Amino acid sequence: MADILSQSEIDALLSAISTGEMDAEELKKEESKPRVRAYDFKRALRFSKDQIRSLTRIHENYARLLTSYFSAHLRTYVQISVASVDQVPYEEFIRSIPSATVLNIIEALPLEGHLIIEINPNVAYAMLDRLLGGEGVSINKIENLTEIETNLMKGLFEGSLSSLKEAWSSVVEDLNPGLLEFETNPQFLQLVSPNETVIVISLSAVIGKSSGMINLCIPHVVLEPVIQKLSMHYWMNEKKNDPTQAEYQVLRQRVENSILDVRARLGNSKVTVKELLQLEVGDVIKLNQHLEDPIVIDVGGFPKFFAQPGKRNKQMAVQIIKSSIEEDTLDE
Fold this sequence. Notes:
This protein is an alpha+beta fold. It has two domains: 43-237, CheC-like (Chemotaxis protein chec); 260-331, Surface presentation of antigens (SPOA) (Roll), CATH 2.30.330. Helices cover 36% and strands 25% of the residues. It is built from twelve helices and ten strands. The protein has helices at residues 7-19, 24-32, 49-74, 90-96, 121-131, 147-159, 161-167, 220-223, 232-237, 245-256, 273-277, 327-331, and strands spanning 78-89, 102-109, 114-119, 176-183, 197-207, 210-219, 262-265, 295-299, 302-312, 315-322. β2 (102-109) and β3 (114-119) form a beta hairpin. α3 (49-74) packs antiparallel against α7 (161-167). The longest helix is centred in the N-terminal third of the chain and has 26 residues, at 49-74. The protein is elongated, with a radius of gyration of 34 Å. It starts with 6 loop residues before the first helix and ends with a helix.
């Protein structure tokens, strides 16, 4: 974004031109010169700004889903939000995370390749402490995790993958993420080449009194089959599939064959708890319904018709006399 000059800077510039300290022609020549911007081929930008915005929206929803999931399972205050979405070389991502941390290698079928969810130890062990009945205090013991602690953390993080599936459902309908490995040393991870572009989504997480980052690393090769769906142009030009006549008939048939509960309301009455407890076989309850007044027909629990009670073929029946009723009429 271009810098905006203040009024004092504008006055100083005009004064310099008027006194001859600066030449207006030289300024024009400077503006006409081609501007050169350095480009680092090691940091190839393979995602457009539009696609970055789409990824941000997807993972804002993912952060909300994770907040609900961890709040329910840890029973403590949890707040997760998107801090940043960047595209960097894979090597830079590996260097940016701690040498001892919690790493989940995720397989996201039908997409090819793997992605990484890295949980900062401050956050991971606050979660572990809550799972074991503690207050959520973070104690760094990554180098001597017991088998029980490892399985507890794996189970917690594996359960959170349903949130990832739901967040990506608008882009990949049949996404089926699964936890492949649970690692603590990033140096052992070589999912892609060091110069491969990856998307890093950094989530700021607060678990009780502990805070830290949760980072998602998604290589470009994983998103390549669906990268066009991340563009707003794709969503704007996507044709809506109108139902065919056959599908319409099937839908109509299913609606027409739906079973509804229809009840004839003969009347209402009010009794005290004492009267209710003293009711016996043969007692008569007086209703607030006159014999000449129509009764109300409830359909699916809602009042829909007025009807007149009677008999047909020696069976009790009702005859609808009005197709629609007003709610205020029923309240009277």
